[in-house]
Amino acid sequence: MSTAMNFGTKSFQPRPPEKGSFPLDHLGECKSFKDKFMKCLYDNHFENALCRNESKEYLECRMERKLMLQEPLEKLGFGDLIGGKSEAKK
Question: What is the pTM (predicted TM-score) of this model?
């Protein structure tokens, strides 16, 4: 006799992770930003350091439309790009 079949004794309440999971952009609200970022990556042989401005704009779009949590740009690694200036050279 096994007691492993007691499903009613504990209630599991799943919760989403704090980081690393966010809603998909089903309505395409940030599609133009994503496409611009992907084109930049392709044009620069996937050197993501050359596409930081596009990446920042894409994440800003997602935050503005509540598709991800609002985070300070400094925390996301874009502190040097605030004000539109980039250290990456094209």
Answer: 0.68
